[in-house]
Amino acid sequence: MNELARYAWHEARLSKKGKDGKSLRETLEVVARGPRGMPPEGINPFEIPDILYDLWIHFQALASGRQVGMEGNPISESDIQAYCLNRRIQFEEWELKAIRLLDNVALERITFEEQEV
């Protein structure tokens, strides 16, 4: 689970918009077109374990429907319930905990720069 959380943290960092309205990923992709290619900070050093890949896809789908006000809101229980109902799936308890962890990482409630997971 730690590897998935670290992957998510790195992806959230790359997706964060700067003052110019562009994400770090977009900026680094422009740099990557140059002779030196993609800078190291643009490459996610973490990998999703195969067993968690489907969960990552579900999380991305849930996060894409996130309600945004002054800042991003957590994925609601009702959103998760509707998502599962519409797809005829049921998450196990550990999967729900993992989705909450990923959501907290995406909302920057958890950082990995100063702590171990």
Order of helices and strands: HHHHH
Structural class: mainly alpha
Percent helix range: 40-55%
Q: Please count the helical segments.
A: 5
Whole-number mean pLDDT? 85
* Strand proportion: under 5%
Gyration radius (Cα, Å) is 16 Å
Low-confidence stretches: 113-117
| Biggest sheet layout | none
- The total of beta strands comes to 0
Spatial separation of the terminal alpha carbons: 9 Å
What does this structure look like?
The chain has 117 residues and is mainly alpha-helical. The protein is built from five helices and no strands. Helix 1 (2-15) packs parallel to helix 5 and helix 3 (53-64) crosses helix 5 (93-106). The chain has one domain. The longest helix is centred in the N-terminal third of the chain and has 14 residues, at 2-15. Residues 113-117 have low confidence and may be disordered. It has helices at 2-15, 24-32, 53-64, 77-87, 93-106. It starts with a helix and ends in an 11-residue tail after the last helix.
List descriptors:
single chain; globular; 117 residues; mainly alpha
In short:
With 117 residues, the chain is mostly helical.
How are the elements arranged and paired?
Blueprint: H1 2-15, H2 24-32, H3 53-64, H4 77-87, H5 93-106
Helix pairs in contact: 1-5, 3-5
